[in-house]
Design goal:
single chain, 419 residues, mainly alpha, 79% helix
């Protein structure tokens, strides 16, 4: 009923961000429904992956070099499928259907964990399949947001969506803990609960998300060459290069959490809880920072987010001995969460309106793919640096590289408009 009420209000205010009196309106029902889909889907995924760094480091005993390679593979596995999903959505004009395919693939993989058992190869294939589903769905989902929300409120819309998405990322580890507390050692039950959540997300997408303002068939791209030409005309290339430069100097999440735990000499038992700290800050800050991006400029805030991350890298490198571990960890996780709140949805909110509607999903996918591949390469490079020079030196080097990348991105692409 609530969703229906918002839909009616959306229809009455089509294309505007304010009501006749000038007050800020509610976000469209499509944005809220997609937020709920992401919430339950991320809860499902994080039930499985929350303990992955601890398992790899302390269960399997992998070193920094191997962890960097695995982190890079996990980060970059979605890249090519992002492009495929984006192009298919534009070619067929059905972003919702392509997104549903991606969500469905990820849901089915949760049942696979009940079959493969302790097989490391089987688990690896399932994780790759889950990342494939994520890659297929991400750009079409973000396109649905850009089509549903007024352009003036895109930062706020993406902020709300990312906040709900992150709430699911926080909920997942807590659910896994609760399930294993209720039935100790029964991972099969945890996997079944994870599947049920993922299936619920697919059903929500099917029944509560509508594909607003999808371009008519006559205006869709006819082939890949035409699609790439349209993207070039839209000036997307400079954004792609800037995002890739920044991604290449970004340390992977698994390494960041491992570094916080080791540099601050925290108990290994706390490692699975560190992502929850980042997620809590991300969830809290995503909406206000998204709204701020609409007011002060989305590209400005995107770069500022990387400056906050740079401060975090310097703090990890210094590992102040005068601080106790928990307070310093709280500061680091706060900077990490603010970085994501200022960059993740903000970049998509900036790029969306700059790309022609007929190739928007592909455009978003190109930016996301460049960023993902760059981050994968950065994760491998950081793993090698940490293996040969140590965590402190590696973070110092990446902090310097990130500073240069921020300056380069600012010089390469400087749109200081309100957008």
């Amino acid at each position: 009923m609530y969703l229906s009420h918002i839909r009616a209000a959306d229809a009455a205010r089509a294309g505007t961000g304010t009501d006749p009196g000038g007050a800020r309106t509610r976000l469209p029902a499509t944005v809220l429904a997609l937020g709920m889909v992401s919430l339950v889907t991320d809860a499902s995924a994080e039930m499985v992956t929350a303990v992955l760094p601890a398992y790899l480091m302390y269960g399997l005993g992998v070193g920094y070099l191997q962890l960097g390679a695995l982190d890079g593979l996990y980060t970059g596995a979605t890249a090519l499928f992002r492009l495929g999903g984006g192009y298919a959505a534009d070619r067929w004009g059905r972003p919702k259907a392509v997104a549903a395919c991606g969500y469905g693939i990820s849901a089915v993989t949760k049942l696979g964990f009940l079959v493969v058992g302790a097989s490391a190869g089987g688990v690896g294939l399932l994780l790759a399949a889950d990342r494939t589903g994520k890659g297929i769905r991400t750009a079409p989902r973000d396109t649905l947001i850009t089509l549903a929300a007024p352009e003036a409120q895109l930062g706020r819309a993406f902020g709300v969506h990312r906040a709900m998405d992150t709430a699911g990322a926080m909920l997942g580890p807590l659910l896994a803990f609760a399930v294993l507390l209720a039935v100790p050692g029964d991972f099969g039950t945890a996997f079944m609960v994870s599947f049920c959540l993922a299936a619920a997300g697919v059903l929500m997408l099917a029944f509560f998300v509508r594909p607003d303002h999808v371009p008519a068939a006559r205006s869709r791209v006819r082939g890949l060459r035409e699609c790439l030409a349209s993207l070039s005309a839209g000036g997307t290339r400079r954004v792609v290069v800037a995002a890739a430069l920044l991604g290449l100097t970004t340390v992977g999440d698994m390494f960041f959490f491992v570094a916080v735990q080791q540099r601050l000499e925290l108990s290994p038992r706390l490692l699975p809880l560190l992502p929850v700290g980042t997620a809590l800050v991300f969830m809290t800050a995503a909406v206000p920072l998204g709204h701020a991006a609409d007011r002060i400029g989305r590209w400005r805030l995107f770069l500022l987010g990387h400056v906050l991350l740079l401060c975090g890298y310097l703090l990890v490198a210094a590992a102040p001995t005068g601080w106790s571990g928990i307070p310093c960890a709280a500061v680091l996780l706060g900077l990490h969460g603010l970085f994501y709140a200022a960059t993740d949805g903000v970049l998509m909110a900036y790029v969306g309106p700059t790309v022609p509607a007929r190739v928007r999903t592909t455009g978003l996918a190109v930016v996301q793919t460049a960023q993902a591949l760059a981050r994968a390469g950065g994760a491998v490079a950081f793993g090698a640096a940490a293996a040969f020079a140590g965590l402190g030196t590696a973070f110092t080097a990446f902090a310097l590289a990130l500073l240069l990348a921020v300056l380069g991105a600012a010089a390469l692409h400087t749109p200081w408009s309100s957008r």
